[in-house]
Design a protein that fits this description.
It is a single chain. By secondary structure, the chain is of the alpha+beta class. The chain folds into two domains: 1-92, Nuclear Transport Factor 2, Chain: A; 94-156, Archaeosine Trna-guanine Transglycosylase, Chain: A, domain 4, CATH 2.30.130. Helix content is 20%, strand content 29%. It has three helices and ten strands, in the order βαββββαβαββββ. The strands form two sheets. It has a five-stranded antiparallel β-sheet. Strand 2 (34-38) and strand 3 form a beta hairpin. The longest helix has 15 residues, at 9-23. The radius of gyration is 16 Å and the shape is globular.
Length: 156
């Protein structure tokens, strides 16, 4: 049984500082309107706040709300596709603009070479849309898009 834990205000402050350092999100006040929950696998979920918060004691309950991010072993954040869309509009750095062919490769779930960028997690943007968060190591972009969300055929 996975235990879910509501992130308290102290942990939330640390999470918001990570968002600020990693993606340059200055105004995180809108995130304080939500409740953050983490599981034992260090996945973070976001949900609306409820006045009376129930204890999560339902057997085999794995998640509550929307999957937002994962805390990695190196203490960095890897945002989900939805997490990147929520944070992307406020982010100021570690954003990589994809061209059409790169966006197509990303949506197909492929890893590919990129020009020189700092290693780490970057938000991926195509035109006005955020397509997720990818890891850049040694000028290669690694894809974390789940298989069930990948596109087989991309239409123009």
């Amino acid at each position: 049984m996975l235990k879910l834990q509501i992130i308290n205000s102290k942990e939330l402050k640390v999470l918001l500082i990570k968002l600020q350092k990693q993606f340059g999100v200055e105004d995180t006040s809108f995130l304080k309107e939500y409740m953050f929950i983490k599981n034992q696998k260090k996945k973070i979920f976001i949900s609306t706040k409820v006045d009376k918060i129930p204890k999560f004691k339902i057997p085999r309950l794995e998640k509550v709300g929307l999957y937002f991010a994962t805390i990695n072993k190196d203490d960095s954040l890897r945002l989900s596709l939805e997490g990147s869309q929520i944070i992307g509009k406020c982010a100021t750095h570690n954003i990589f603009e994809l061209d059409h062919s790169q966006a197509e490769n990303w949506l197909k779930g492929l890893d590919f070479d990129i020009p020189e960028l700092d290693d780490g997690y970057h938000l991926l943007k195509y035109k006005d849309d955020f397509l997720g968060c990818g890891l850049i190591r040694l000028n290669k972009l690694y894809n974390f898009l789940p298989k069930n969300r990948r596109l087989r055929v991309l239409y123009d």
